[in-house]
TrEMBL record:
The protein, known as: DNA starvation/stationary phase protection protein
Entries under Pfam families matching the protein: Ferritin (PF00210)
UniProt-listed InterPro entries: DPS_DNA-bd, DPS_DNA-bd_CS, Ferritin-like, Ferritin-like_SF, Ferritin_DPS_dom
Every Ferritin/DPS domain range: 19-156
Species of the source: Pontibacter aquaedesilientis
PANTHER family: GENERAL STRESS PROTEIN 20U (PTHR42932)
Top-rank taxon: Bacteria
Signal peptide range: none
Assigned protein family: Belongs to the Dps family.
Amino acid sequence: MNKLTNIGLEKQDAVEIADKLNELLANYHIYYQNLRGFHWNIKGIHFFQLHAKYEELYNNALTRIDALAERILTIGQKPLHTFSDYLRVSSIAEKSNLSGDRETVEATHQNLSVIVNLERDILALAAERDDEGTVALVSEDINENEKTLWMLKAFLS
């Protein structure tokens, strides 16, 4: 019996990596939805700046969501696709009724920190299992997310 996926990964490795990618996918979905709410509901002196920034961030998150789902499919597994699954798997909590600049930026920083920490775990696992495609996907995202974390922190300083 062939123990390799169609791209040459060990099937068990693909299952383990996909499980972590699905966890990241779930977190990204809740992060995305939180950003949509912040975009719609932001108020205050920084409205114009944050309204635009949240739109940029949720559009970027949507692109990442699609890339993650496609990577899961590429390694021969099935991406999660229901909100009940996302809520069950995600470490990021839904945020509601936030409209202030500081509280939404703090929540965004917290949410993105969860994502980056999970990405670092996935990066290590994928590198250990010689999954270069996942390493490249996650490494690129870590770089962008770390820059965003720095900018959010600068806003809060």
